[in-house]
Amino acid sequence: MMDKALESLKQLPAEFRKTITFDNGTENAGHELLIKELDIETYFCHPYHSWEKGTVENTISLIRRYYPKTTNFSKVSWEELKNLENRLNNRPRKCLNFMTSYEVMKLCTS
Hints:
InterPro entries: Integrase_cat-core, RNaseH-like_sf, RNaseH_sf, Transposase-Integrase, Transposase_IS30-like. It comes from Methanolapillus africanus. This is Integrase catalytic domain-containing protein. One of its GO terms (cellular component) is cytosol. Residues 1-109 form the Integrase catalytic domain. With 110 residues, this protein is mostly helical. The chain folds into two domains: 1-65, no CATH class; 73-110, no CATH class. Helices cover 44% and strands 7% of the residues. It contains five helices and two strands, in the order αβαβααα. It has helices spanning 2-10, 32-38, 54-64, 78-89, 101-109; strands at 19-22, 41-44. The chain is globular, with a radius of gyration of 15 Å. The N and C termini lie far apart (32 Å).
């Protein structure tokens, strides 16, 4: 799974790849690959401390609108996940002054 994360993160400009915060799920066990390949700092939240990762929790709740907790993600195609990623990244957010993530990223890189 980290190989797909690495592939996606490599597409971002280096200035947007400073840190990444994970929860303690087994799917994040290969985080060392990101450290090695991208020179990125990784952090893990304490178990059962959801307030330490507000953005992660919010994003998970958005994903759960499309894929319930019982979803077997090995049966979800990469294309479906990329479509969801695009939908979420093109969603205006109050914390970004009602701009999308992509709009803010373009402002920062121009």
